[in-house]
Amino acid sequence: MDNKNISIIHPRPSSIVAALYTLRDLNVDVAILHGPPGCSFKHARLLEEDGIHVVTTALDESGFVFGGHRELVNVLHKVNDMFHPKLIGVVGTCASMIIGEEMREPVMEANLDVPVIEVEVHAGYRNNTKGVLFALESALDAGIIDREEFSRQQHLLEEATNVELRHGAASKEYLAPSRGDVKYKVAQRIIELLKEGKRGITIMNAKKETGYMFADITVAVNEIAEQLGKADNIINMSNTDVGLGLPRVRHHAECIMNDFEEKGIPIHEIIGGLDEYPVAGATIDKLIEEKYSDYDFAVITGVPHAIPMDHLSDMEIISVTNGPRQVLPLKELGHEHVLVEIDLHPKTLGVNHIVESEFGATLREVAKESI
Amino acid sequence: MTIQKRIAIYGKGGIGKSSTASNVAAACADEGYKVMIIGCDPKSDSSITLLGGKRIPTILDLLRDGVDVKEEDVIHEGYKGVKCVEVGGPEPGIGCAGRGIIVAIQTLKKISKSLNEMDLIIYDVPGDIVCGGFVAPIRKGLVKEAYVLTSGEYMPLYAANNICRGLAKINTPLSGIICNSRSVSREEEIVTKFASEIGSELMAFIPKEQIVQDCERDGFSVMEKAPDSNVAKVYRKLAQAIMERDSSVMPEALDDERLRELTK
């Protein structure tokens, strides 16, 4: 099928939300959604759990007809007084963009002594990474990031879009959500493999803060191997390079690495930064080819569909995703066991330590019974 | 009892829709008909000559101020009891006028009891059919038939032709073409021919006369200020023709080439 021409009809994350998350990664204190009060409610609330304030200009019918210039100026003043932010973001919505709202003028008029990143974005883009790109462009203009980081991010976004088109949520016209395989059975299988003395690789290729939960699966597999006296059979890879990414993303990598160290989990291979999930596949593929091609199984977490199958196809693959629409594409890639961590995102916002995953917990419980 | 007429007047911006609409409204009122004129342009100037040059509060102005709008707030009586309504809208270049029309029309439908008591309701819609908002009076079931105003110049005819294409698309019949003369060569012949080729006919040829401007500048309709003038007679005849009109067609727009030929 020609990926460029398919019309995807299942719901996907929107560019507006993508812009909000990017502003969060740029460490804005307040994000103002310029549009109707209910726009992006669920994500706005989640981001508040992550420590930033998300507010809305709450445009109503009158705002749609007469524009929301005054409302935006008012909200800018209000958030400045209430939260004393160091950096503010303003994000467009479908409604405000369709009526041609201009956000620069209200920002100039509000004349705050705080830098403001304006993102003119609506949700009508085929690739939601557009929202990230627009936010980064504005951040570049406002001098919040440099040209080098911008180019790096731009490249990662292009690759992220390609990954989604190839084997992700944008690969098919319709993908039904699925909960994947039963975690209990897959936990039993991993324990069985370890008992048989098989050698395995854990690959955490996680997207930013989701790493807090996917890392727990790496930890659980290592704990079980340890209990079985097979700790040496496990090789761990994770994309937690502490020196790469926007400020908040680097911080997440540090927190996760600290926890690994504290728990005594050796990370044998760092495969990139927490924002490099779309490009880490090539590194992983090369590492496996050179050093681990005779391993028996792999537990891949995060964005498993970004990893090429070239040198994995002889292994038994257990993959864990947080996308309910990702199950079918992963099965089609040849992953024997595909698991979904439901509600991962709400649990990984606003944290700075590894969070227990459902699969990690299941592994530990099953191990109690069978070891 | 006469059958209620609900018409919309379309045509290129600046072609004279408002002065035609208000003069037809005034002429019908002279004949004793109950008439309402609903101006849908954000400039809110459709009814100004029926109100002695006075502006009335628009539906959207009141909605913006959060007023719980009642019928008496927005329907104002003008010349000989003509009920005047202005939709209003945003300042040029901000907000969305199309959305404004939709919101105002929905409000009007909800609050107005007198809509049903009228013999004639004229919707004076802004310019061309540019987006969904501009056809709201039709789409919300308030308009039954349309008239298109043009002159014999190329661009107004081009717009008129385009509007006919739009009317066919939204399944609204055309009741006739009205020519508001700009005194260009062979004007009546060209517009008559255009009307017949799209399947309709010319309802009236309104001559270009200074008196129309003079009355407008004073804030009055021709019917009120110069009832004995020649152009007043033309409006009176047009008003009568509209009230008696019982046929309409689905217009068939011409292709660009034919339209160009017609005006040569």
Properties at a glance:
heterodimer, A: 371 residues, alpha/beta, Rossmann fold, 2 domains, six-stranded parallel sheet, four-stranded parallel sheet, B: 264 residues, eight-stranded mixed sheet, 11 helices, Nase/OxRdtase_comp1 (chain A)
Question: How would you concisely characterize the structure shown here?
Answer:
Chain B: Pfam families: Fer4_NifH. By secondary structure, chain A is an alpha/beta fold.
How much beta of chain B, percentage-wise?
15-25%
CATH architecture of the largest domain in chain A: 3-Layer(aba) Sandwich
According to CATH, the fold-level topology of chain B is Rossmann fold
State the CATH topology of the largest domain in chain A.
Answer: Rossmann fold
Q: Kindly give the count of domains of chain A.
A: 2
Q: Give the overall shape of chain B.
A: globular
Helix-residue proportion of chain B? 25-40%
**Count of all domains of chain B:** 1
Helical residues, percent of chain A: 40-55%
Order of helices and strands of chain B: EHEHHEEHEHEHEHEHHHH
What's the CATH architecture name of chain B?
Answer: 3-Layer(aba) Sandwich
Number of helices of chain B: 11
- pLDDT average of chain B, as an integer? 93
Uncertain segments of chain B are: none
Mean pLDDT of chain A: 96
Q: Over the alpha carbons, how many angstroms does the gyration radius of chain B reach?
A: 17 Å
Strand elements of chain A, count: 10
Pfam families (chain B): Fer4_NifH (PF00142)
Family (chain B): Belongs to the NifH/BchL/ChlL family.
Cofactor (chain B): [4Fe-4S] cluster
Keywords (chain B): ATP-binding, Iron, Iron-sulfur, Metal-binding, Nucleotide-binding
